[in-house]
Amino acid sequence: MPLPEYEVFAIKYGDRVGTRGTIFANGDPHEAPLPMDYFVWVIRNSQRTVVLDIGFSQAEGERRGRNFLRCPTDGMKLIGVDADAVEGVIISHMHYDHVGNLDLFPKAKFHIQDEEMSFVTGRAMTHLSMRGSFVLSEVVQMLTAVYGDRVIFHDGDEEIFPGVWVHHMPGHTRGLQSVRVHTKRGWIILASDAAHYYESLTDGTPFLLHENMFQMLEGFRRLRKLVSSGEHIVPGHDPDVLRRYGPPSPDLDGIVVRLDEPPKA
Questions:
Q1: Residue 239 burial (CB < 10 Å; 0-12/13-18/19+)?
Q2: Is 152 exposed, middle or buried (0-12, 13-18, 19+ CB in 10 A)?
Q3: 25, 113, 124, 210: which has the highest count of C-beta atoms within 10 A?
Q4: How far apart are CA 224 and CA 201, in angstroms?
């Protein structure tokens, strides 16, 4: 039986401007500003709609100096997706900008790696520098979802729906997972924070924040092995994603792009 194909969308909901010294390990803080975009991702076909990551809340984003352009769920509505009806949400990892709107998905079950829940509730969180990108109230919300039978745990790589795989990619956090999706242009992989920028994939440039540098660097190699070419990897925060791919309609230019279509020439 042939694998189903999915449409895949990147939806921008926020941004910020940093420098290489505040974004990349060993980056020069005196270099020109470097922008960062914040996305949520929609994977859908006629059988199901799956959301990867759910963004930060307005209050948490603004507390951290991020520009909150729109609620991620409002961005999803632009392509006809109602968060109230979504039944499957993949959480790549538990950083504030990926798990900040759990309460806006009342019917969803959340897919997460065993290692990530152990990480955010264990000894690592006794170190202030390790827990700075996590929010206690969001961790508690996820634990509440566990006790409410709304969390599906994964131990490593697994096909969670036909044509949708999660792949454990430790490094940035201990339980980070990327998502590989079957589309009409073949398999693509949504790296999330396994690779923040295209530069990480082409030059091996590591992100400043990491739990394990070696595993992060090995993750760049593993991403490339999971798909047929670099054009089939989509990094998690690179503004270039919005330039490389086209919007589903002209009025969504600069907000939404469609990733199951080939990148622009």
A1: middle
A2: middle
A3: 113
A4: 8
CATH number of the structural domain spanning residue 62: 3.60.15.10
Question: Is 78 buried (19+), middle (13-18) or exposed (0-12) by CB count in 10 A?
Answer: middle
Q: Is 155 helix (H, G, I), strand (E, B) or coil?
A: coil
Closest to 93 (Cα-Cα) out of 20, 17, 193, 11: 193
**To which residue do tokens 């152990």 refer?**
118
For 20, the domain range is 7-161+239-258
Domain count, the chain: 1
Would you say residue 193 lies in a domain?
no
Closest CA to 264 of 242, 246, 247: 246
Give the integer Cα–Cα distance in Å for 160 and 195. 22
Confirm whether 206 is domain-assigned. Answer: no
What separation in angstroms does the CA of 80 have from each of 101, 214, 235, 237?
Answer: 19, 40, 24, 23
The answer to whether the CB of 84 falls within 8 A of the CB of 103 is: no
How far is residue 85 from each of residues 101, 103, 106, 108, 237, measured CA to CA in Å? Answer: 15, 13, 8, 8, 26
pLDDT mean values, one per 10 residues, the chain (265 residues): 94 95 77 92 97 97 97 98 97 98 98 98 96 97 98 98 98 98 98 97 93 97 97 98 98 98 92
CB 91 within 8 A of CB 110: yes
pTM of the model: 0.96
Q: Give the pLDDT score at 26.
A: 75
